[in-house]
Design brief:
By secondary structure, the chain is an alpha/beta fold. The chain contains 20 helices and 8 strands.
């Protein structure tokens, strides 16, 4: 081990966000999370990922909960532990880019309500989509962590990641994360990458990797050997399959070593016992994966995307197309210049693959989101785009090559009027005067208006 490896490993517990999202489609209600929050707060995690990702949308759409109130409750019950969120840069928590004014207001409000660590990524690793949100986090005196959305392709070589990390550090971030949403980062590649990163950057390095392909624990251990500062884990009863390596297993592996986490296994067991019951309660939302799925090593489909894809096909009564869609996804990804499969690009690629399979002809129908992706409105794609796809998309929309947010009209005031009009038409209180509800509405208009109709 190098000298960096001689310090305690930090653990970020993800059971409240990514563990829930990957295994149970983000359906656990706040009433089943708050009773264990105080116990989580006593463990001594470096941070707890409790917000962001799909939780915001799911709160409004499925759980009929106010996501802002969820955050406040978590902060109140876990005052001793950093609350961490996953933020999609200029996308915030939505599926498109938002104006700088909205990004600024959202980060201010999230900081005010209790987020301490912002893990910020862009689906295309386009630094133009990250710089503004990183700056806003720093202005709120919070921890800005820039995440590299890891993927494997002919254009994603080691030098690509080293260069990206160095550019992140130059933005003044507090730490850098490797975000392996598909669970395809191999142990020895992780060792080499982190070893090299430690040579060129001085900020701490974190890592998140999924268990889908069966690599996660081995990859975590090699990353630890290389001197990584922090890794994501999920409590054992909410781990593996589409999720993450079990917290207790990693803690146990490192006992009596230089990297001892100093977390108490007996206390962790109490949390695991609690979530065993929670998982049973929400078992209807589980995906079908048992064990591991090694096809991820070729298709690179993230665990959360798999479970959501399965749910969507069930709703459409098209479960029989599942395997065909999975096979189509890497073809679409190649044609789109090898973007990482992470939200919102994973949804765009998955939806286009589903359309291709349903049509029995590739690209007979292009979704609006695919057109936006091809024409640069999500940012710069890492590789070469299929020429025919470019021609089809150009017929629909102008290609841009600079920062996408610069082309977005600042419609904050207009959206405020829209919410005000909705409230008037439905004889509701004027929720447009509440900045939190307005920010929810801007990102998820339909889910938010449905939620506000019953808001007490």
């Amino acid at each position: 081990m190098n000298s960096e490896s001689s310090k305690k490993l930090g653990i970020t517990e993800v059971v409240l966000r990514d563990g829930n999202q990957s295994l149970l489609a983000t359906r656990i209600k706040i009433e089943d999370l708050i009773p264990i929050a105080n116990a989580l707060d006593q463990i001594g995690y470096w941070s707890i990922e409790s917000w962001g990702g799909a939780t915001f949308d799911a709160c409004l759409r499925y759980l009929k909960e106010d996501p802002w109130e969820r955050l406040r409750l978590f902060k109140k019950e876990m005052p001793n532990t950093r609350q961490q969120m996953l933020l999609r840069g200029q996308n915030l928590l939505g599926y498109k880019h938002f104006p700088d004014s909205v990004v600024s207001k959202f980060i201010n409000k999230a900081s005010e309500n209790g987020i301490d660590v912002f893990r910020i990524f862009d689906a295309l690793n386009d630094i133009n989509n990250l710089e503004f949100s990183i700056k806003q986090v720093k202005e709120n005196f919070k921890h800005a962590q820039a995440a590299m959305a890891y993927t494997v392709s002919p254009v994603h070589k080691l030098d690509y990641w080293l260069d990206l990390a160095k550019r992140f550090e130059d933005l003044g971030v507090d730490s850098i994360a490797i975000k392996d949403m598909s669970g395809i980062l191999k142990p020895y590649i992780a060792f080499e990458m982190i070893s090299r990163l430690k040579e060129i950057i001085s900020v701490p390095i974190h890592m998140q990797t999924h268990a889908t392909a069966g690599l996660s624990t081995a990859t975590n251990l090699k990353a630890i050997e290389a001197g990584i500062d922090n890794i994501d884990t999920s409590i054992s009863s909410m781990s593996l399959t589409y999720g993450h390596s079990p917290t207790e297993s990693i803690v146990s592996c490192l006992e009596d070593t230089e990297r001892n986490t100093e977390l108490n296994l007996n206390e962790l067991q109490k949390i695991a016992d609690y979530f065993k019951e929670v998982r049973l309660k929400y078992s209807e939302y589980e995906g079908s994966l048992k064990g591991v799925d090694t096809q991820m090593l070729s298709s690179q489909v993230p665990g959360g995307m798999l479970s959501n894809l399965e749910s969507q096909l069930k709703e459409l009564n098209k479960v029989n197309l599942y395997n065909d869609v999975i096979k189509e996804i890497p073809k679409v990804r190649k044609d789109l210049g090898y973007p990482p499969l992470v939200t919102p690009v994973s949804q765009i690629v998955g939806a286009q693959a589903m359309v291709n399979v349903s049509d029995s002809v590739s690209y007979k129908t292009l979704s609006k989101e695919t057109i936006n992706l091809v024409t640069g409105h999500y940012g710069k794609l890492p590789g070469r785009i299929n020429d025919e796809l470019v021609k089809l998309a150009e017929k629909e929309q102008e290609v841009i090559s600079s920062r996408p947010a610069d082309y977005i009209q600042d419609d904050y005031k207009d959206r405020k009027k829209d919410l005000k009009n909705f409230c008037n038409q439905n004889n509701l209180n004027d929720f447009s005067e509440n900045e939190e509800h307005l920010l929810s509405f801007i990102q998820f208009p339909y889910s938010t208006t449905d939620f506000l109709k019953d808001f007490k």
